[in-house]
Amino acid sequence: MIEKWEQQLDSFDWGKRLTALQELITLVEAGQIEFPAPTDKINMHCHTFYSYNSYGYSPSKYAWLAKRSGMALAGIVDFDVLDGLDEFIEAGRLLDLPTCGGLETRVFVPEFADKVMTSPGEPGITYHMGMGIPSGQLTGKWKTFQGKLKNTAQDRNRILVERVNAYLSSIKLDYEKDVLPLAPAGNPTERHICVAYARKAAEHFASDDELISFWSDKLGVDVSNMELPQGRDILNTIRSKTMKRGGPGYVVPDAGAFPRMAEVNEFVLAIGGIPTLTWLNGLSEGEQQLETLLDIAMASGVEAINIIPDRNFTPGVEDELVANLRAVIQIASQRQLPIIVGTEMNSPGQKFIDNFETAELSPYMPLFLQGARIVYAHSVLQRQCGLGYTSGWAKKLFPDRGERNQFYETVGREIEPAQEHRLAAVNTDTKPDDLFKLQ
What we know:
16 helices; seven-stranded mixed β-sheet; alpha/beta; TIM Barrel; about 450 residues
């Protein structure tokens, strides 16, 4: 029964997911499932099946597995949509797991128009995030703005598929029939498209030899040692050789293809989130000028930075990647920017949780935990009473960012998900010490 309900957590039907979660909680209450004691483990950047999770995890499934793994806090981030945010927060409440959510998109930075940052091969374009968004229910112009982010991405996808179809010739996708059904709310990504092409090719060719010959010819590399039809290496190779810069399907961004960073920051702040700069690995020209990029980003509202530790170090190996990782953490610390970490889980092989016990990461765990707690506390206070980390109340009360970090970290440590509603009584007259009495 446990396996049955866990599998149902990934249904595209929200009602079935909720039923499965409630049944699993019943088994917990009956003593048939035991949760481990919470640890210091965190993953605040996990994509769900609303924008591609390589294991097909729904928001509820990720919350459930996070609880079963002993995770202290968990966060989701989906590309261009907030479809899974409210479900994830509700799952966290039911499981007594601190949760929060956000959104990731791509933006244009005019000051760095000639420099590559976190989007390889695309000068001026960088991935960008809004963290700790209190609700996925948007209204008015901000609902329209978010819809435009999604629609822009889907328009690019359709053009990409047309071009790749022409190049592959014998393998063609119907976007409506082959791609859209792979995502529950009409938001497939390039990774969904790669899966669709891999499946279509496997259906088309009668033998493994024919499949190997086709992909080796079209991708320009020997795929005989890759796990066909849709293992990690072949999916990544399809994406890199056909969809990225230099590939036949690549769609060159035109003027206005992506919103400016300042526009997305305004959007994130308006819907109650924390504008967050992303960092890849420090190797690009733009990221080598991180201090200047941070000046630009913070001037338009950025209040945190996101790092993916796992792809930036190899345990026991001293190289440029780990040196850059240490450097970005030092810069963020000097600026007292909360650091958000996670593994993404939107590519096969990515870990469920970073290996924080390594010599490379363990010294920074206090900073990583602080960032997670700040974002969680922000999302709760913003949702309950509008007094999150970026509120006027917070900045007036704590003009020093270090003191503000300490306060929200403490709130994030002390809040219990089942008691979040009690913070609705907080208002601008509430003294910081009195806030803890309301929990």
